[in-house]
Amino acid sequence: xxxxxxxxxxxxxxxxxxxxxxxxxxxxxxxxxxxxxxxxxxxxxxxxxxxxxxxxxxxxxxxxxxxxxxxxxxxxxxxxxxxxxxxxxxxxxxxxxxxxxxxxxxxxxxxxxxxxxxxxxxxxxxxxxxxxxxxxxxxxxxxxxxxxxxxxxxxxxxxxxxxxxxxxxxxxxxxxxxxxxxxxxxxxxxxxxxxxxxxxxxxxxxxxxxxxxxxxxxxxxxxxxxxxxxxxxxxxxxxxxxxxxxxxxxxxxxxxxxxxxxxxxxxxxxxxxxxxxxxxxxxxxxxxxxxxxxxxxxxxxxxxxxxxxxxxxxxxxxxxxxxxxxxxxxxxxxxxxxxxxxxxxxxxxxxxxxxxxxxxxxxxxxxxxxxxxx
Length: 374
Ligand code: SF4
Ligand code: SF4
Hints:
alpha/beta
């Protein structure tokens, strides 16, 4: 199996403000190119694209290609599960939405310490093993957002786990919250194979500060900036899949080129990336990957990732008075809750896999934009 997997959480949209409006024609053409080049793996989940990702996968992949020509990962939304019987309901709904008889890979989605407690209470991994015996799951695993210590504990207690999906990229490698390196080392200690998510950190590593881009371009003028992040992920031992959420056709074309002629990074490339990390950290904005896990539960419908994107553009431009920025901000406030309407309930921070201080970050945005917009 080739190492590039098509992540179905950032698909092209007809209306950029509505994640449910996936552009089917564009996605279909992207699937055709992906498959024609010999890539075969797709990654979906119950909640992606406002619960449309699995259906779109059926329409554009399952209904158009023989089942044995592709593999798919789907994930149990354990954060939505309230009782044991829900597991069966979610699982059957997912098979039906995807139009498949079995999942090649089936993960517990976004596992952390508290969700692992839920798993234990309802014997969720026991349920996975039953489904594996029935032939409805080929391989069992989980995607993970917590510390290496928690990962070690789970892997010690769950011998049925074959794979773990980790957030790994060169910026998070030594990050104290994400703990990419430490988690990677724990997974290898337990002899697990690794899927990588967020190799480009939600696009953050596709566009770097000018100084950092110039360093990478001088080393390899032809290579895209994102290619460094993808090669970094794919160069790691025991990594069997690197998932990339591709929105534009050129993302896909670039990714195909990288993975068709995969060149592992060398020692001097890694040293260069260490320098790049230092530059990025100096210029750190809000490290939101636009995964949208925080959005649905917000009681005042604050468009958190969209506000963060505006804030980051504001930092890039060093000009909060930029008219286009102001207009985009006003547009958002006309349809969604305003940053200063946050009631600090904290549900978004509980959901955020990047451990962002969302409440404080929203205050920063309010401080810049409130006066003129209120
Ligand atoms: S803390 Fe604020 S932004 Fe977060 S979910 Fe609650 S109201 Fe929404
Ligand atoms: S704030 Fe966190 S949970 Fe919300 S979209 Fe950004 S990274 Fe995802």
